[in-house]
Amino acid sequence: MKILKAEQIRAADAYTIEHEPIASIDLMERAGKLCYEWIKNQFSLERPIRIFCGVGNNGGDGLVIGRLLKKSGYDVEMYVVQYSEDYSADFHSNLLRYKELNFGIHFFKTESDFPELAPDALVVDAIFGSGLNRPVDGIAAHCIDRINELPCIGLAIDIPSGLFAEENAENTGSVFIADVTLCFEVPKLSFLLPNGGSFVGEFEIIDIGLDKEFLEKQESPFILIREELADSIPVSRQKFSHKGSFGHALICAGSLGKVGASILASKACLRSGVGLLTVNSPLIGMQSLHTSVPEAMVLPSESEFHLKSLPKLNAFNVIGIGPGIGLHEETASLLKLLIQEFDGPMVLDADALNILSENKTWISFLPKNSILTPHPGEFRRLVGEWSSDNERLDKQIEFSKTHGVYLILKGAHTSIACPDGRIFFNSSGNPGMSTAGSGDVLTGMLTALLAQGFSSLEASILGVYHHGKAGDMAAEVRGQLAMTAGDIIDHLDFR
């Protein structure tokens, strides 16, 4: 799914209105009805619902929702935040429709007009839409700030009021804090970035019937990985295939006190379909690996406590390196030799990235189509500081294009930067995956997928999506608080 700019969505609105054809107020009715149906499926009639509308088209959506809920017997109170005397045409038409039914409506003009809200109320935010281009202040800001102070459930229509659709670095105004956002047709870029995403909560995509052919023709470097995209990459196997058909991977991992990282990466690699796996480990990890991962072959390093010796590389078609390897100078030398001598793709994570950040000239020699998997701290050490989420995106794209590698920046909505300038954002996963070893699992998965012959892009998409999906399945069993990285491995399922 493409992630489009606000002006592209407005153009899709206009095109749909002209070519469906459908009147703009009827398109608003359709969008509002879909939101109404979502609310009706989630909340009973006993839930008090308080809807705050602006005077533009987002407010018109709110009026449609309120009218339909009121007609269905819900306890609805409607508030119009009077930040302007200029009403959009469709808002005004829906205001008249609402009043014709003799439903009460309140106009919020001064700070004293703010109502008492029950703590169990559902507050629906329809004050500002995605066309907002200035920080919110005045009476609208007061209203948003007051709502944010309350324990009510917050539901934003299309976008949390006050949030800009793309760039929020200069946004100093008030922003509605939503628990759920019902976004129309496609998500906004700001939903997927830390500064904006913190206001969005969970987002649900509502298909309001904009012209699909027009949307498909819109250009965007940003793509959301959903289930259908991951499922479009075939993972089935031929009947007469054998273990040699699915690659031989080398994982270089572990050091004193961090043997567990090598075990997690190895288990994840095997669970992700690699044909053969060899683990290069310090001597201290030999017994643990043989016991915990009997399916893997173990190639001991010459050193007891850290990686030192470079194995013969001709047997392997992909190498994963980094989990728990530490920063010993002999380990750094091993990494340098690997970069110089191995001509297949590599997966680099954790301390491999930290070593690179101290030896940045090595980066240009990385095998093309390698995959790097930093978290934000590791990425900062590689490329320096950034002043905004969008600048971080620019740095991620530039790094990938310059060095011909795929850079997976881990976090909420893990992003994959490609050498062609595209960025894919992941839709699966949850905060419970913020736990030690989760990155080691991803490294093992990516290594296995590359070994089987998937392209770097295919491996990245499959890896991050199924890593998150396994985390979601684990959270259903254990809860987010109790999850461990091992739980992610236990729930890997590529079906």
Please tag this protein with its features.
495 residues; alpha/beta; Rossmann fold; UDP-N-acetylmuramoyl-L-alanine:D-glutamate ligase; 2 domains; ten-stranded mixed sheet; seven-stranded parallel sheet; 17 helices; 17 strands; 40% helix; elongated
What do these coordinates show?
With 495 residues, the protein is of the alpha/beta class. The protein folds into two domains: 6-219, YjeF N-terminal domain (Rossmann fold, 3-Layer(aba) Sandwich), CATH 3.40.50.10260; 231-490, 3-Layer(aba) Sandwich (UDP-N-acetylmuramoyl-L-alanine:D-glutamate ligase). 40% of the residues lie in helices and 15% in strands. The protein has 17 helices and 17 strands. Strands 8-17-16-15-14-13-12-9-10-11 form a ten-stranded mixed β-sheet. Strands 3-2-1-4-5-6-7 form a seven-stranded parallel β-sheet, with helices on both faces. Strand 10, helix 10 (286-292) and strand 11 form a beta-alpha-beta unit. Helix 12 runs parallel beside helix 13. The model has no long low-confidence stretch (mean pLDDT 97).
Read across the widest sheet, the strand sequence of neighbours is 8-17-16-15-14-13-12-9-10-11
Number of helices: 17
E-strand count? 17
CATH superfamily of the largest domain: Ribokinase
Mean pLDDT: 97
Query: How many structural domains?
Result: 2
By secondary-structure content and strand pairing, the structural class works out as alpha/beta
Short description:
With 495 residues, the chain is of the alpha/beta class. 40% of the residues lie in helices and 15% in strands.
Question: What's the helix and strand layout?
Answer:
Elements lengths: L5 H14 L4 H19 L6 E5 L3 H15 L4 E6 L7 H12 L5 E3 L13 E5 L11 H11 L4 E5 L22 E5 L9 H7 L1 E5 L5 H6 L4 E4 L1 H5 L16 E5 L6 H13 L4 E6 L4 H7 L4 E4 L17 E4 L7 H13 L4 E3 L2 H8 L12 E2 L3 H8 L5 H15 L2 E4 L5 E3 L5 E4 L11 H14 L4 H23 L6 H6 L5
Parallel strand pairs: 1-2, 1-4, 2-3, 4-5, 5-6, 6-7, 8-17, 9-10, 9-12, 10-11, 12-13, 13-14, 14-15
Antiparallel strand pairs: 15-16, 16-17
Helix pairs in contact: 2-3, 3-4, 9-15, 12-13, 15-16
